[in-house]
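Model it.
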Amino acid sequence: MTPILKKIVSLSGEALNAEDQYLLDAIGNNQAYDVDRSGLLYINNERYYQFVVAKHLFKTLNRKVEIEKDLIDLVVLSNECTPKYYVAVEMKRWMSSTGNPEIPGIRNDFDKLKGSNSEHGLMLIFSSNPIESSLGENIRILSERIDRDVDPNGWFIESFETVGINGIKNVFWVAGYEVPKY
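Modeled.
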């Protein structure tokens, strides 16, 4: 994976971890949430995660970032005057109980990135699993289900421990995969 894509994955994990800490503190100090004191998993929403990541990239990436450009979730512009994007990023949440409902959308995004007008394509997956579950096994399952010749060893992953619904310890992770161009 190229350095810029690793950097985007790392910054995405950093942003979501900071947001998780903010929510753990905010919800933990609000008596209205006396039972459910989870963090980022309290707001299990793909668009929310996308905007948290974009907001952090605006501040930290040192390149112009645009959201929802040409039907792509996020693009990083080239420093040169060119119509070609430097990086096209699609982001998907993979958190249903079986993981199956999200797969068609992930496949569509892989195909969209392969044909995008960009130098690099990055698929970002947001997911979580109980702390005792194997992150590596989940990546292997995801790679198989995507069915686009995805190498399970090709993912770059950032993860952090958080608290899920009902106080269950979880690992929240962001996995990035460089999608080869046509």
